[in-house]
Amino acid sequence: MSAAPLVDAYDLVVFDLDGVIFLIDRPIPGAVEAVARLGGDGRAFAYATNNASRRSADVADLLTGMGVPATADQVLTSAGAAATLLAERLPAGAPVLVVGAPALHAEVRAVGLVPVTGAEEAPVAVVQGYGPRVGWAELAEASLAVRAGALWVATNTDRTLPSPRGPLPGNGSLVAVLRTALGREPDVVVGKPEPALFTAAAHRYGAARPLVVGDRLDTDIEGAVRAGLDSLLVLTGVSGPADLIAAPPGRRPTYVAADLGGLFAPADALRVPGKEPAGGGWRVTDDGVGWRLDGAGAPLDALRALCAAAWSGGPARRVTGVSAQARAALKELGLD
């Protein structure tokens, strides 16, 4: 097994933010140190977030206030990407109904379009992004505008946002309101799992081999798969061990780690599914009723072994720990 750190194989690290670097306004333990170490080693890194409630400069200020190195140029947001897409499709000065936070209004204005708030202003497009104060009145105006023929662009469709108190409704939940009212999907979804943010980051840095780091299988990891990029799932946000075991092929990461410290661990120790070491470790057997986990080792290695069993073709099954170490590992992973 090579002892070289995982990050050595890549020329750019692209981080998701919510659930990877911070939870709402609190840095995740180890995140500050991990990003600072990358910067100290002279490695290139960027941030790609589906959260459309802040502009790039505001995100950079938030990060630096937490002690995480960041500049506005390093931050790619779904709000900025959505505004750019609209500017490419619409004439300058076109009215766009904005449903979201002030940051999304500012991004639309910055590309030469005119943000409006009512369907009576004849918007030619509706752009919908997360905003903690979005309510029925804004959604009603958007519904009327789309029914009248406006282009409907969603910055992203994350169903939830991670928080210290647990998952909260995300923009996908708000999009679902209009989807139900209108009986159709948005015309365009800009953010992850669409690969645009990742490809834009690679282009910006001239990177040939980026690594995507995220906490969500349905956005970060699926987006990396669609972009043809390797990815690292960290277990500090939305997707947990049970989600990983049950992940379909299009949502399977290259590596899994407990947190961002995994960037500096050997790649073979994080690759998923994991290979059983020659000297022993974890063993997963099928007794016809469920899986039996036996052996000893790190809980993360047990998770990798369970992924190997699940991803070999059969469906995920109930798992029982045989040894005391196995039962402890399953408890730590939340699989007991």
From TrEMBL:
GO terms for cellular component: cytoplasm. Gene3D superfamilies: HAD superfamily/HAD-like. GO terms for molecular function: phosphatase activity. InterPro entries: GNAT-like (IPR041065), HAD-like_sf (IPR036412), HAD-SF_hydro_IIA (IPR006357), HAD_sf (IPR023214). Residues 280-335 form the GCN5-related N-acetyltransferase-like domain. Pfam families: GNAT_like, Hydrolase_6, Hydrolase_like. SUPFAM superfamilies: HAD-like. NCBIfam families: HAD-SF-IIA. This is Haloacid Dehalogenase Superfamily Class (Subfamily) IIA.
